[in-house]
Amino acid sequence: MKIFNIYLSGVGGQGIGLISEIILRAADHAGLNALGVDTHGLAQRGGMVSSHIRIGENIHSPLVSKHKAELVISLERHEAVRAAADYLAENGTLVYYNTSWQPLPVRLKKAQGISEQQVEDFCQKGAFRLFKVYQNDLPDPRMQNIALLAAICKNKLVAGLAVEHYQKAMNDLMAGRMLETNLGMFKSLI
Amino acid sequence: MKSFADMLLSREAFSEIVMGNTAVVRAMIEAGARVVTSYPGSPTPEIASAIAGIKAEDRPFYFEFSTNEKVATEVAYGASVNGHLSTVFFKSVGLNVAADTFVQLSLMNLIGGMVVILGDDPGANSSQNEQDNRHLARLSYTPIFEPANPQEVYQYYKAAAILSRQLHIPVILRLTTHVCHAKQKVNFAAWQPADFDKTPAFDVKNGPYMPLTSLVFPMKRRALGNLQQVAEMSENKGLHQLVGNENPRQGIVTFGMPFLSLLDCLAESGGKPDILKLGMIYPLPQKLIAEFLRNHEEVFVLEELDDIIEGEIKRLAFEQQIKVKIHGKTDIESWIGEYTADKVAVLLAAIWPEIAPKPAAAPDFSVAVPPRPAQMCPGCGHRSAFHAVKQALGDDDIKVADIGCHTLGFMPPYNMGQLLMCMGASTGIAAGMSLFNASRSVVCFLGDSTFFHAGIPGIVNALFNKHNITLIIMENGTTAMTGHQDHAASGRNFNQATDKIPVRGVLEGLGVKHIYEVDTYQQEKLTEMVKEAVAVEGFAVVIARHPCMLKLMREQRRKENFQAKMVSIDKQACNQTHACVSDFACPTFIMHEDGSIDVNPDLCIGDGSCLQTCPAKAINRPENR
Ligand SMILES: Cc1ncc(C[n+]2csc(CCOP(=O)(O)OP(=O)(O)O)c2C)c(N)n1
Questions:
Q1: B342 to chain A, minimum CA–CA distance in Å?
Q2: Mean pLDDT of A105-124
């Protein structure tokens, strides 16, 4: 099987760890060899955070190389463009949750924020596939990651992973009310 | 849900996707570790998180977070000379703190064995430097195992424990950030809990344990003798991995994570050099390496951070007159940063371009995405403190930062922090800057975990030597930056409730005469207090207190009757002075193109600390969502 690299990005506090762990475990449930690694430490305080997932046979380091990710998943609009520009491979796909957490320089009016249009233009220029996800009326903003995961599952963005693999992975990682609400929403969106 | 605790305690062999930091806990259990200690620091605190997942009564070993890395090392040493296999773990720079004790370990007869786990941080992902702790291992004659991935973390810990117990010596397991955090399916062996002997085995006959003047020499002789013995054992091919491609021209010696980066590069380029991947990296298997050198025309030493084994291998080639061209570090850049596949590709290209992978093409257009530095969380008490302290100080006053979440106060718009060194250093540095200085007030910051870790000596010195400085203690009740570990003033240790050691009580006991204390959300009061403290001729302390809101919110969200809140903007009252974004700068505020302000519902926790900072009173009280 060809190597499939996934780079995930977001802002510390958005719950990137859960979505990347679910995908990694889903790959395992699908019988695929997979490696992963997350950002820990300092950057988790409102900084840019990332996760790497690699799926395939001849893979060694868990880190994805620049411009070699078949799929970039981002929980935030600015981070979507940053990640895509640095990591997306030719013919790659960007899927992002369309929320904006303004970086400090934008709030201080020292820099321009990224608009939805800019994300579209970027993907058009690069001939990247683009999926924009947004879910109205989420009971809790911390469920944006699950809305994004549902879109990834529904559009079969990770080759070889099916609904049941994602669900098994969610079952591995959550219990009780948390599992109920997250799985419930996941199912309603796929 | 999978129970990671059940998994870590499983009697049967199993395989599971885990990080290196989790894999090592299972290795401790299988190896029979009895006492494990630490002080938190990235990349290692998740080792403690995995331990915390096991209920205290089920835990096969004792664990504590000690006051600092030095004390943690001492506790583990004490347990070892009493016959218990012990382990201490901490981050790279933690070894500087532990060093005074650590460098003595190899002189001692460690009856129970002791494994020292070091979390080095190439790439300075969350550290104040990239120090290569292999230097301190050599300085102290301590063997090192270095794994490349979680599977090896598990195996090498067990090998380190066996070696340590066999020779009664300290052994280092050196991990790097992305080995600690890498996730992989690891195959674990079965485990049979063994009865263990609780009798304190300490006996001076096993010593000497008193390294004093001439007594040092027999102990040093023993340490060097042990090291020689380990050097012979390191020739065991099972400790290393030879990737043989029968390539008489090109050989590469490497170890740790860079080995994986190299394999990824070669998988892509199709290059087939021979590779000697070392598992024990100190002392080196000299015969094995000499043979590898003899079998190749050219050998590349692929070594992250400093050029330690490159030097040793060159010496070996020189001494044994082996005719081989040895490539190593070329320029300053090769000493810097993590050896990712991208970096290794560049290094290979400079030496053997034919086996270097082609870099993937970057898009030929770019979008300027504003940088996103880390920042204090919504509601963080440190933010309120910095905002208030700033009002009390002149631009010209000197602000010395320390390590913790509050380090982030150095960023705009607060600019409360102009120098940073290491944990607990701020008070001493401030004292030095106050000398011959009659014109610029000197203020320094210190976190509460750091107060106990390394802060107290600087404070004692300020009193003892009558320094004219103001110390602001940022008390949030926890070790926030590294993931909310309890400390001496928290009222809990890792295992149970304990009496708080109050920061204020300690200061009073030391005889600090000027102590001010206030909750940081009372900003005006804090500003006044800082002004008063700075005006004091001598040493004054302001305790700027507020619980860590990230921790508090997590605890509250777990409660049944939790009600989320948030503030909102009174658009009528808002006159767009923008103090909320440009002065108070809570990440919750959104600045629109037209200059209007909104509140980001993803971020606001409804703490209301911002209300007092709006001159137009245009922020509405927090309301239920
Ligand atoms: C010698 C050393 N050990 C550990 C660390 C890791 N570390 C970075 S910040 C920090 C926490 C400091 O806690 P505290 O002083 O209470 O400040 P807070 O983060 O809570 O604001 C630690 C332990 C370090 N940088 N240096």
A1: 6
A2: 94
- Report the residue of chain B nearest A114, measured CA to CA: B369
What sign does the dihedral B65-B66-B71-B76 (CA atoms) show?
Answer: negative
What CATH number does the domain containing B592 carry?
3.30.70.20
Test B360 with A25 for CB contact under 8 angstroms: no
Residues A14-51 have pLDDT tens digits of: 989 999 999 999 999 999 999 999 987 776 788 999 99
Q: Is the ipTM of this complex over 0.90?
A: yes
Interface contact flag, A114 B126, Cβ < 8 Å = no
Which residues have a Cβ under 8 Å from the Cβ of A3 and sit 6 or more positions away? Answer: A54, A55, A56, A57, A58, A59
- Tell me which residue in B125, B264, B374 faces A45 most closely, judged by beta carbons: B374
- Per the domain annotation, does B361 fall within a domain? no
Nearest to B162 by CA among B233, B213, B218: B233
Residue B540 pLDDT: 98
Q: Which chain A residues are within 8 Å of B481, Cβ to Cβ? A: 41-42, 45
Residues B65 and B207 in one domain: yes
Whether omega before B43 lies within 30 degrees of 0, making that bond cis, reads: yes
Above pLDDT 70, what percent of chain B? 100
B54 with B157, same domain: the answer is: yes
B243 in the same domain as B224: no
> Does the C-beta of B480 come closer than 6 Å to ligand 1?
yes
- Looking at residue B77, its pLDDT comes to 98
Q: Which of residues 65-104 of A touch B (CB under 8 A)?
A: 65-68, 78-79, 81-82, 85, 88-90, 99-104
Which residue, of B553, B585, B613, is where some domain finishes?
B553
Which residue is listed with tokens 């880190």? A63
Q: How far is CA B293 from the centre of its chain?
A: 36
Q: Is the pLDDT of residue A140 over 90?
A: no
B306 burial (CB, 10 Å; 0-12 / 13-18 / 19+) is middle
Task: Return the amino acid letter for A136.
Answer: N
CB contact under 8 A, B373 and A36: no
Q: In which domain, by residue range, is B191 found?
A: 4-233
Decide if pLDDT at B510 tops 90. Answer: yes
CA angle B546, B551, B554 (to 5 degrees): 135
Nearest to B43 among A41, A58, A78 (CB): A41
For residues B496 and B592, state if they share a domain: no
Under a CB-based contact definition with an 8 Å cutoff, are residues B565 and B622 in contact?
Answer: yes
Chain B residues with CB under 8 Å of A171 CB are: 1
Q: Which residues of chain A does B264 touch, with a Cβ-Cβ cutoff of 8 Å?
A: 59-61, 65
Kindly indicate the confidence band of residue B9, based on its pLDDT and cuts at 50, 70 and 90.
Answer: very high
**Domain stop point among B492, B518, B553:** B553
Model pLDDT for residues B111-145, shown as the tens digit of each residue = 999 999 999 999 999 999 999 999 999 999 999 99
The model's confidence at residue A1, banded by pLDDT at 50, 70 and 90, is low
Q: Do B600 and A101 touch (CB under 8 A)?
A: yes
Beta bridge partners of B399: B443
Query: What confidence score (pLDDT) does residue A4 get?
Result: 98
Is any atom of ligand 1 closer than 6 Å to the C-beta of B424? no
List, in order of start, the domains of chain A with CATH numbers: 4-189 (3.40.920.10)
Query: Distance from the CA of B497 to the center of ligand 1, in angstroms?
Result: 22
DSSP B175-207: EEHHHHSEEEEEEE----------S----GGG-
CA dist., res. B517 & res. B541, Å (int): 8
pTM over 0.95: yes
